[in-house]
Design a protein that fits this description.
Strand order of the largest sheet: 1-10-7-4-2-3
GO molecular function: 4 iron, 4 sulfur cluster binding; metal ion binding
Number of strands: 10
GO biological process, one term: lactate metabolic process
Largest sheet: 6 strands, parallel
Distance between the termini: 84 Å
Number of domains: 2
CATH superfamily of the largest domain: NagB/RpiA/CoA transferase-like
Protein name: Iron-sulfur cluster-binding protein
Keywords: 4Fe-4S, Electron transport, Iron, Iron-sulfur, Metal-binding, Repeat, Transport
Shape: elongated
CATH topology of the largest domain: Rossmann fold
Radius of gyration: 28 Å
CATH architecture of the largest domain: 3-Layer(aba) Sandwich
CATH class of the largest domain: Alpha Beta
Strand content: 5-15%
Number of helices: 22
Structural class: alpha/beta
Length: about 500
């Protein structure tokens, strides 16, 4: 899915739903070299956000794009009389699946297998990538076309395929922009939201010719012209590809049906033309029944693109003889989701349907952009989902729960009622608990507990304090080594020149 560029003036966000179900190829077949850095080793959110704030062009792009999407969403949500009932229904369907996930996954596998699909299970990114690579090699293919998929970005599938000499062509317009620009996605729905149309025109003119049909020399930054250039660039790739890779927005357990919703038509081309289709599906995407799609297909388009319904909703159930791919593989991927499921508070993050509504209302995301979050999942949901999936062992994952003002707008916007502010506080507690015993504050509290446990230690500490007070005189303590930023914002109280006991003895000497 991608947001509509035709509703934005020239110079604003460059991603859109205009259909471009075709493409092209360079004469020399040159592969696309992905040079953008992967997310591992990213700095903390606070450091990355500080750099992003200096990019004024990006801030203008983000502010205009998110405001436009918010306004469209408000209009179409306002048309629904019982919107809150839909949110509750969506949340309940996801919770039912999560609370009985093993049962529904086994039901999904059985129904997929009965309809001719082959189901694979992957515990982590390495297993998922190995399965996909093996399937592509078995077909003798050296390229694949891809439907937009957050999961394939999460496991860095494109990078692994390129290392193996297999070219993965993104066919979603926004993803194509990111790929051609050797960039990273910065938004769940509109990965190229940080680019404006002028920048996209330059990317197309500079890069398309090296990996396929070049962009027209007279290309302008009009949305229709940009979409037409993408359509022509992709045409031969669609017609030539023997293998396609997709994700899934939903996987229905009781029928074995996979669902992809999109706005451009490129997904439909990938799902119907190639001989082999490989779908990577996070285990949390399962829904119990086909009826559960009803609320979801009302919630998702309104919350994401501000549309009443998606232009393209594709559903497939296994193999249909003589129609569409005749070899269908479904890879069910865990990659940390079981870890999240075990967290009684955090598991509600697995309800996420990747609509990006929380990003579009978040004042922090609007100013910092998506790259600062150090993951394919940016914004409020990324600030909790990333550390839940990956743990808080890295600098960036420790910092993400603090990438929020806790204003609560994300919960109000979430179509499946994920209480993101609650999760942010929950993850902050986890970060602090994991650092317990190592931080200066924790060491200070342990020292205080040891001192207060014995009156003789306390008296010794008080005498030492009064001595330091007499030595300091009337001078103010501006900073204390080890306490860092705490003493940069406040003065430390000057220790008293005598303790209470010393004062008592001095003033009540006759009484004693």
């Amino acid at each position: 899915m991608s947001a509509d560029p035709t509703s934005l003036p020239p110079g604003d966000v460059g991603a859109g739903p205009t259909a471009y179900p075709d493409g092209g190829r360079a004469d020399d077949g040159a592969p696309l070299q992905v040079t953008s850095p992967i997310f591992l080793g990213m700095p903390s959110f606070q450091r990355a956000a500080r750099d992003a704030l200096a990019n004024t062009q990006q801030r203008r792009n983000l502010a205009h794009a998110t405001a436009t999407i918010r306004a469209k969403r408000e209009r179409v949500v306002g048309e629904v009389d019982r919107w809150e009932d839909l949110r509750v229904a969506g949340a309940e369907a996801k919770d039912e699946a999560l609370h009985h996930l093993p049962d529904y996954l086994e039901q999904l596998e059985a129904n997929l297998t009965a309809r001719g699909a082959t189901v694979h299970w992957a515990r982590d990114a390495d297993e998922a990538n190995a399965i996909v690579l093996g399937l592509i090699r078995d077909k003798g293919a050296d390229e694949v076309v891809k439907v937009k998929s957050m999961l394939t970005q999460e496991i860095e599938l494109n990078e692994r395929l390129e290392e193996a000499g297999i070219h993965a062509w993104e066919t979603d317009l926004a993803e194509l922009i990111v790929q051609l620009g050797h960039d990273r996605p910065s938004h769940i729905l509109v990965p190229a939201i940080h680019r404006n149309r002028a920048e996209i025109r330059e990317i197309f003119l500079r890069e398309m010719g090296s990996v396929g049909r070049p962009a027209p020399k007279d290309l302008t930054d009009e949305p229709a012209k940009l979409a037409e250039a993408a359509r022509l660039h992709l045409r031969e790739k669609f017609l030539r590809a023997k293998v396609a890779i997709s994700g899934a927005n939903f996987a229905v357990a009781d029928t074995g049906t996979l669902v992809v919703v999109e706005s451009e038509g490129n997904g439909r081309m990938c799902l119907t033309l190639p001989e082999t289709l490989i779908s990577l599906v996070g285990v949390e995407k399962v829904l119990p029944t086909f009826a559960d799609l009803g609320p979801m297909l009302q919630l998702l388009p309104r919350s994401s693109t501000g549309e009443r319904m998606n232009p393209y909703t594709s559903m497939w159930t296994g193999v249909t003889p003589g129609d569409g791919p005749q070899e269908v593989h479904v890879v069910l991927v865990d990659n940390g989701r079981s870890r999240v499921l075990a967290d009684e508070v955090g598991r509600q993050a697995l309800r996420c349907i990747r609509c990006s509504a929380c990003l579009n209302v978040c004042p922090v995301y609007e100013r910092a952009g998506g790259h600062a979050y150090g993951s394919v999942y940016p914004g409020p949901i990324g600030a909790v989902l990333n550390p839940l999936l990956r743990g808080t062992g890295s600098e960036v994952d420790k910092s993400l729960p603090y990438a929020s003002s806790l204003c609560g707008a994300c919960f109000e916007a979430c179509p499946v009622r994920i209480d993101i502010p609650q999760l942010l506080v929950h993850m902050r507690t986890q970060v602090v608990d994991e650092a317990s015993g190592r931080s200066p504050e924790a060491l200070g509290m342990k020292a205080a507990a040891w001192t207060f446990a014995d009156h003789r230690r306390l008296e010794t500490a008080q005498r030492a304090s009064s001595l330091s007070g007499r030595l300091l005189g009337n001078r103010t303590v501006r900073s204390v080594p080890g306490l860092g930023a705490w003493t940069q914002a406040r003065d430390v109280p000057t220790p008293p020149k005598e303790t209470f006991r010393q004062w008592w003895r001095r003033t009540h000497e006759d009484e004693s």
